[in-house]
């Protein structure tokens, strides 16, 4: 880690503990609330998937027909498992559907229904020959660090029971509007170095890095792969169609229904205990912050009142000295010295005990302390009275 990273981490730590940890406590509370929101969403998804029927694909039509009144317009939530195949056309059958236009992987030559090709530029980061921390190149053009080209091609496909179609039937998979991640398999992965150019020298001089390689990747959803689909199943133009549910975390997956339920249950436990631990820490930290700042405020109020009263007492003492009274300091007999400071004459008696043992200033200090008590008898005092010589 560089010195700049250490400085940034130290600044973040100072901000986090500012105000006796109030900012850190609020941050922990936000994280705890986020964990609880995700936990309830995960629990709701788990309960819905558990209660969803998981029939065979050949039984889907009967299931949908029996529940038309329950799920009219949006379909019924089901969990089905089958093999990926090309969608047959109206004038094709299972035999010649293998000759339909499938996507061919350039890296492996496999036939697929979804092909995703990604190219990413890898950077060698540094501070530049001038040690600048600002990427000047990013001010004028888009940095290569952000250049990531990706293309996704797909053809209509269906899920069928293993090798039994057309006798068992099939269900169409509709990807329109789906934002769920696709269970693609990486079949091609190559790293190609980039030859330096004059523009690369310009980036190295005025930027924070320069490109060194291109990473080419290709992922596919191969024909014949066993998949589990979770979504709303309905009838579209006489054919069964399965659509994704936006509020569920899965649509297509290579895991079985039991494996999906186990993963959601594990994630729910992690989110639950994360919310409990973070919430307990945030409550404790915020309670400590409130209590400590309340005590500081109380002490500040007491000190302010004590200073104000000392000013009044000092003003009264000065006025008394100027009017001709004998000064409390100077050559004072030993028996008349204040028992607290041993510098000034005894002038104040405590109420209700009546002991004349302190000067005016020390009596005020005792009177405005947290627990005012007479220095001699240790009895709680309520006020003090100044005694004047005749």
UniProtKB/TrEMBL annotation:
<keyword id="KW-0472">Membrane</keyword>
<keyword id="KW-0808">Transferase</keyword>
<dbReference type="Pfam" id="PF12483">
    <property type="entry name" value="GIDE"/>
</dbReference>
<dbReference type="InterPro" id="IPR044247">
    <property type="entry name" value="SPL2-like"/>
</dbReference>
<feature type="transmembrane region" description="Helical">
    <location>
        <begin position="270"/>
        <end position="291"/>
    </location>
</feature>
<dbReference type="GO" id="GO:0016020">
    <property type="term" value="C:membrane"/>
</dbReference>
<protein>
    <recommendedName>
        <fullName>RING-type E3 ubiquitin transferase</fullName>
        <ecNumber>2.3.2.27</ecNumber>
    </recommendedName>
</protein>
<keyword id="KW-0862">Zinc</keyword>
<keyword id="KW-0863">Zinc-finger</keyword>
<dbReference type="InterPro" id="IPR001841">
    <property type="entry name" value="Znf_RING"/>
</dbReference>
<dbReference type="GO" id="GO:0008270">
    <property type="term" value="F:zinc ion binding"/>
</dbReference>
<dbReference type="InterPro" id="IPR013083">
    <property type="entry name" value="Znf_RING/FYVE/PHD"/>
</dbReference>
<feature type="region of interest" description="Disordered">
    <location>
        <begin position="308"/>
        <end position="329"/>
    </location>
</feature>
<keyword id="KW-0479">Metal-binding</keyword>
<feature type="domain" description="RING-type">
    <location>
        <begin position="338"/>
        <end position="378"/>
    </location>
</feature>
<dbReference type="InterPro" id="IPR022170">
    <property type="entry name" value="MUL1-like"/>
</dbReference>
<keyword id="KW-0812">Transmembrane</keyword>
<dbReference type="Pfam" id="PF13920">
    <property type="entry name" value="zf-C3HC4_3"/>
</dbReference>
<keyword id="KW-0833">Ubl conjugation pathway</keyword>
<dbReference type="GO" id="GO:0061630">
    <property type="term" value="F:ubiquitin protein ligase activity"/>
</dbReference>
<keyword id="KW-1133">Transmembrane helix</keyword>
